[in-house]
Write a structure and sequence with these properties.
The protein has 183 residues and is of the alpha+beta class. It folds into two domains: 97 residues, Topoisomerase I, Chain A, domain 4, CATH 1.10.132.20; 68 residues, Gyrase A, domain 2 (2-Layer Sandwich). The protein has four helices and six strands. Strands 3-4-6-5 form a four-stranded antiparallel β-sheet, with helices on one face. A two-stranded antiparallel sheet has the order 1-2. The relative contact order is 0.17.
Length: 183
């Protein structure tokens, strides 16, 4: 009887998606719309994501154009971006807002790489926790006589192989982001 890894495989996918999303929010030297995903604007009596009150578009490699649908929220959008502490410069003009991504300093690059590495470690810790749950399940199945000891060891080896592949994939995501930050 082969062990059902469906739950473990889903956990792997979830962790990979989480890390991709987290790394997308880390600022590099280039303009990136996803950095503004976490910015909420107080408009119309509630907090809303910036993309629900304005159009966002890339203007050039170092700036983003934000065109609010209602010009009355322009100041609120500006205030939200400044308050987000992303290290971005904001200027208001007749077309809306222009968000400028300044050049990263060496110190800031080092801090961003360190933060990115911490996100990688968090993902690895989550995966190890999922592996432990699966191993405990295997131990219980062996005690209950559902699987043999040999089957348990084969399944554990297969589990470790899947974990190693996922870890390599996560590390490749990190290395790609680290390269982006360093350039």
């Amino acid at each position: 009887m082969a062990y059902n890894f469906t739950q473990f495989k889903q956990s792997i996918k979830d962790v990979e998606e989480w890390l991709k999303k987290e790394l997308a929010t880390v600022r590099t030297g280039r303009a990136n719309l996803s950095i503004l995903d976490g910015v909420s604007v107080e408009a119309y009596g509630s907090f809303m994501p910036i993309n629900q009150v304005a159009n966002l578009s890339m203007e050039d490699a170092r700036s983003v154009r934000i065109a609010p649908w209602d010009s009355s929220v322009t100041k609120d959008v500006e205030k939200a971006i400044v308050a987000s502490d992303l290290g971005l410069s904001v200027t208001v003009d007749d077309k809306g807002l222009r968000v400028i991504f300044p050049e990263l300093t060496g110190e800031r690059r080092t801090a961003l790489v360190k933060m990115t590495k911490q996100k990688l470690e968090d993902a690895k810790i989550t995966l190890r926790g999922e592996r432990e749950k699966t191993m405990k399940d295997l131990e219980n199945k062996e005690k209950e006589g559902e699987i043999s000891e040999d089957e348990k060891f084969r399944t554990k080896a297969e589990l470790q192989k899947m974990l190693d592949e996922c870890t390599r994939s996560l590390e490749q995501l990190f290395e790609k982001k680290e390269k982006e930050i360093s350039e």
